[in-house]
Amino acid sequence: MIIRIQSSQGTKRLDISDNESVSSLLSQTRELFGLSVTNWTLCKGRNQTDPLAELKSKSVKAAGIKHGDMLYLFIEEGTSAKSSPAEEQKPPSFGSSIGSLPMDDIDELLLQLDGKIQRKADPTLCHCGPLGRCLHCIPLEPYDENYHRQNDIKYLSFHSYLRKLRDERKLHSLILPQCAIKPGCRGHPAWPVGICTKCQPSALTLNRQTFRHVDNISFENVQIAEEFMRFWRQSGLQRSGYLIGKYEPHKEVPLGIKAVISAIYEPPQENTSSSITLLDDPHEALVDRIAQQLGLRRVGWIFSDLTPEDVSKGTVKYTRGAVDTYILSTEECITAAFLQNKYTNPCRLSPEGCLGSKFVTVVVTGDSNLQVAFEGFQVSNQTMALVRDQCLVPTFDAPELGYIRESSSAQFVPDVFYKEKDQYGNEVTQIARPFPVEYLIIDVPAAVNKDPVHTFNHDSPYITDPFPVENRDSIGETQDLARLGRYLLQAPAYRLLEALTNFHVLLFLAKQDTVPLASVIDDLLTAIRDRDAVAFEEWQKNDQWRTLYEVLLPFTPGAEAGAGQQAGALWPCQYCTFLNSEGSDQCAVCSLPK
């Protein structure tokens, strides 16, 4: 007979004879789900009642289990599956426990939260008393549709979506669509000679995604955006960059996630007034390493699309979102999907170990008031699958339309459809050749923090000559030791740590080879991340930094008398924090003893 076993990893079937023992049933269940010997329970009751471990000596029939019955498997958190060395190379499946798969810190935090939407007692309808709860004040689930509608929340957050699937017992759907032939099918010759139902991908219908992985994009301060915009203002050329930041909880959306931007890294690129071409970046790994040491990461990318309307008024043309224009072009959607596939979102509830991406897209363009605006987007998981399997291409002359490739001898492409309403209001299904890219796009609000935060130094009063951003040689801004010397030697000795707290400065220090700092840069990054003045004072004593500082001194006349004392041994005043030379017994600023 066949019995069904339901667990948090999905539902599986088990073929067993009613004359076999319950002990045999438990052993087969353990092998079917790849479980360890302990830390799991198989029960007859949905609420973890009637555990079968107490009936090991009885037969399946005597235990009251009949053909078609549903049993319930409860796996304790942290239980790991057994796997052979060959299986370790394969992605985890629902038949194995992946509870130990590392996830992003923000996901680990939100998974531990209850997520319920708390409500105050309604003075008119509630009569349940201060310690009671009734239908009108009981906490709502984080995916409650009425709450989202009333608060004008367009999408579910990712973790609200997970809880909805969990409550509906649909966690098995946490997987990207497959748009390419499954490899390893040996029952027939390879495509284009043969194909079968086992390896052929299913047809796909494009749906507007109901959830998003990131619910808000926030720039820490306006200086980050202004510095990025300055390139366009000076040259009239478009610009692109990577957003460096972190993810935090977004309290405006139940179980929401916010991408907080601390800096923008501008990779090598070729720019014109209407296009951007990204070039190979030899420092890609170094940028990621520095960001990681500072507790940050790449959270998205940004590009500009600006055309002046009236230079005297500072207005720009409204070119995206108007009736006869588009929000994102197909090429931009493909680029966004490529980057989202590159920076995927780890998810232990998915059989692939990842689902979607938190990588966001920000477009700097004109709004309906002809002012510069920052618009945030992501593309759907279906788009990621189409781009991953090379099925989506742009059209020749309509940027607002995408096109699904047709099958050829080199590639099998499944049929992709979308639904729209005809002139009579009937919903009809169309083949996606072409189709509007609105089916691919998820909008994400983007804005600057109301209360500025400064992870990096952007607006210090003593800095009158800022250090240039990388890869801006085309507008005459070059990073070299002369510029670094002029920048650093503007800062008083006791504010050198603050001056170095600049992402572009740190990246230049890490990649310059005049006096390599590779062996000591990690300690500097740690001191900056922790805002540790004592650790930074100790770091300044290393030979590499002292040598580099001596190299920088000649670039600013008269600097030796002021900041030059940093190259030697220093001690910080415990009252005013000024860094004094080792030979003095009292502070040069406040005259208090050492």
Describe it for me?
By secondary structure, this protein is α/β, with parallel strands linked by helices. The chain has 14 helices and 26 strands. The strands form eight sheets. It has an eight-stranded mixed beta sheet. A four-stranded mixed beta sheet has the order 2-1-4-3, with helices on one face. The N and C termini lie far apart (86 Å).
Strand order of the largest sheet: 23-17-16-13-9-10-8-24
Q: Using the CA coordinates, give the radius of gyration.
A: 30 Å
How many DSSP helices? 14
Proportion of residues in extended strands: 15-25%
| Helical/strand content category | alpha/beta
Name the features.
594 residues, four-stranded mixed β-sheet
Quick recap of the structure?
With 594 residues, this protein is α/β, with parallel strands linked by helices. Helices cover 22% and strands 20% of the residues.
Furnish the topology, listing elements before pairings.
Layout (H helix, E strand, L loop, with lengths): L1 E6 L2 E6 L6 H12 L6 E4 L26 E6 L29 H8 L32 H6 L5 E2 H10 L36 E2 L5 E2 L3 E4 L2 H14 L4 E11 L5 E10 L3 E3 L4 E3 L5 H10 L3 E8 L3 E3 L4 E2 L13 H13 L17 E7 L5 E8 L1 H8 L3 E3 L6 E4 L11 E6 L5 E5 L3 E2 L4 E4 L1 E3 L32 H8 L7 H5 L2 H9 L9 H10 L2 H7 L3 H10 L17 E3 L6 E3 L13
Helix pairs in contact: 6-11, 7-8, 12-13
